[in-house]
Amino acid sequence: MISVSEALTRILAGVSPVSAETVALSAAHHRTLAEDLVARTTQPPVDVSAMDGWAVRIQDVTSIPVTLKVVGSIAAGQDFSGKLRPGEAMRIFTGAPIPEGADSVVIQENTSFDDALTKVVIEKPVNRGAHIRVKGLDFHAGAYLLKKGTILSARHIALAAAMNQPWIKVMRRPRIAILATGDEVVMPGDPLGPTQIVSSNSHGLAALVTEAGGEPIMLGIAPDRSEPLQAMALAAKKADVLVTTGGASVGDHDLVRSALESAGLRLDFWKIAMRPGKPLMFGELTGTPFLGLPGNPVSTFVCAVLFLQPMVRRMLGHKTIEPQRMMAILGDDLAANDQREDYLRAALTLDEGTWIVRPFPVQDSAMMTPVVMADCLLVRPPHAPMAKAGSPVAVIPLRPLF
What we know:
Layout: H1 4-13, E1 20-24, E2 37-38, E3 48-49, E4 53-56, E5 66-74, E6 88-92, E7 104-107, E8 111-113, E9 119-122, E10 132-133, E11 144-146, H2 154-162, E12 167-171, E13 175-181, E14 185-186, E15 197-198, H3 201-212, E16 215-222, H4 226-234, E17 241-245, H5 256-262, E18 265-270, E19 274-275, E20 281-285, E21 288-293, H6 297-316, E22 326-330, E23 341-351, E24 354-359, H7 369-373, E25 376-380, E26 392-397
Parallel strand pairs: 5-6, 13-16, 13-17, 14-15, 17-21, 19-23, 22-24
Antiparallel strand pairs: 1-12, 2-11, 3-10, 4-6, 4-7, 5-9, 8-9, 18-20, 20-21, 22-26, 23-24, 23-25, 25-26
C-alpha cells in the first residue's frame, strides 16, 4: 500500500490542464479564466456626479449662502456642450457628466430652489471636487483586472461586464466519464430485485465533479462480466478521465482490474493506506487516465473528495488543488490509529471562537446518512497515538463554516 500523499502526487501527475474555449459572458459563471482579462473601456469614462444636486464652480460658493443662476439640467447618459460660467449652476443627477467649468457638486439637501428652477441657493459650504467621481476612478482601459485561473463568481462577472467583455475565454470543463459496476445495483427508479440496491455512487460522483467545475458523463452500470465491462469502459475514450465505482476489491466478482487490464489498462498503483477507500486504483486505459473507486458509498465519496476533485481542479489550472484543511480541538478522546490514514465523519461546533470536533460513534463505510450529517472529515495520520479531548487535530470541512 502507498500513502495518501504519494497517491495524490501520482494521480495529479497523470492529468494535464485542458484546453480553453470562448463562451458568452452570460455563460461564464463558475467557469475558470483561461487568460488575464483586460478592460476595454475606462470606468467612469468621464468625470461624473456621485449625487443628485448642483454642479458649481468652487469660486462661486466660497461665501455661503449664495444664490446662483440655473442654466440647465443634465442626467446620466446625457451630454452638455456648453460651459458653466461665473455665477451659474446646473441641476445634475447621479451618474451625469460634470459640465465644463464645474469642479464641485453641492448635494440637493444643502440647497433650496424655486419651482421654476431659475435660481438655486447654496446653503452649506462645499469642498473642491466634492461628490465627483473622476474619470477612471474604478479602472482605465488596458488595465488587467482579472487574473488567469480566477473562478468567476457573480462579482467577477459584474466586473467583466463593466470592462466591456461580452465574450470570455475559459478553461473547457474536464469531461469525467462515470461507470458504475455490479449486478447488485440498479439506477434510481428502475425495477429493484429483492437483493439489489439503488446505485447512489454515480450520482454523487456526478455532483462532486460538477461542484469542482467538471462535466460528468454518465455511462450507466456495467454488469459483473468482463466483455460488457470492457466495452462500456472503452466507450469513454473521448473523456478526459474514466472513473469506475465498485469492483475494485479482491473478491471473485470484483472484475474491474482484470477486465480492464485485458482491455489495455496500465495500472500505476492499487491500494492506499487509508480508511475508508483502501482498494483504490489509478492508471491509464488506452490513453485515458483511469481512477477506480471502491464500491462502498462512503469510500467513494471520501476518495472523490481527496483525489477526483483535485484531478478536476488540476485540469482547470486552479491554484488551490487539494481539499482545504483547518485545525480544530477534539471534543472526545480518540484511540490510537493503525497503519492506515483515517478519515472520520465528524461534527463541528463553534465554542467561544474555537472549533470543537467530535467524530460520530459509527464509521461504517456503507452508511451515507452520517456523511450528510457530517460537517467535516477528521484526519488521523497513520500510527497516530491516542489523543485526549482538547488535543488539536486536522479536519477537512465539508460545508462552508461562515
